[in-house]
Specification:
CATH topology: Alpha-Beta Plaits
Number of domains: 1
Shape: globular
Radius of gyration: 12 Å
Distance between the termini: 22 Å
CATH class: Alpha Beta
Number of helices: 2
Strand order of the largest sheet: 1-4
Order of helices and strands: EHEEHE
Oligomer: single chain
Strand content: 5-15%
Length: about 80
Amino acid sequence: MPDQADRFEENVPGKYYVTKVCIGCALCSAIAPDNFMENADEELAVGNSYVYKQPENEAEALLCEEAMEVCPADAICNNGDMSHS
């Protein structure tokens, strides 16, 4: 599993983050659109998603967990840091 050093800079600080193994499938933003967003930077060779908002309630947290579980690249991580969520 990638570590925090491999996370995209676009991720907001907090418990969840997307790492650089992301393949840009956008499944996470389909599951949890309030928390994940696709990077639209056209200068990137490969698109990626990132966490633009940490979950603010249990429902959002559950969707983030679901996105993490189904991510085909295992690019979504949960560092257990509850101080920013």
